[in-house]
Amino acid sequence: MSETAPFSSNLHFCPLCGSVLPLPTLDSDIIPCSRCPFKRNIREHDEVVEKFILHFNAPKKKKSDTSQEMDATGVNEFNGPTVERICPKCNHDTMIYTTRQTRSADEGQTVFYTCVNCKFQDIEYS
Fold first, then answer.
1. Residue ranges of the alpha helices (H) in the chain?
2. Is 34 part of any known ligand binding site?
3. Residue 26 annotated as binding?
4. With 37 labelled, which of 7, 50, 70, 74 sits at a CA distance of 20 to 30 A?
5. Is 27 a known ligand-binding residue?
6. CA–CA distance, 110 with 72 (Å, rounded to integer)
7. What angle do CA 31, 32, 38 make, to 5 degrees?
8. How many angstroms separate the Cα of 45 from the Cα of each of 2, 18, 39?
9. What keywords is this UniProt entry annotated with (predicted)?
10. Cα–Cα distance, 19 to 32 (Å, whole number)
11. pLDDT tens for residues 93-119?
């Protein structure tokens, strides 16, 4: 820093007042500061290389909210609340259910039923 430049900055900022310098125009080699008398020669930018590195956070693993989980053998193991409901495929009387809001908020939830016997899935739009 010197007496004439109270700010230590990169080429996009005025070293006198700290303002952001405007973008250069095609018809001039001078970039004037809009707040003070400072002027920068556009040729100062010739040797400048700017590098940007974007670091993104790793996506968080989404918890599965289905009623199916894989066991060690790779077979689906069903768990969750049960209801007495006749399976339309095998006529078993117990099914597991989950609910989801698949439509707009002023409409009812969608109920997904899964037979504990044959794993048939039935849907009820309530």
1. none
2. no
3. no
4. 50
5. no
6. 30
7. 120
8. 21, 18, 13
9. DNA-directed RNA polymerase, Metal-binding, Nucleus, Transcription, Zinc, Zinc-finger
10. 11
11. 999 998 888 888 888 888 899 999 998
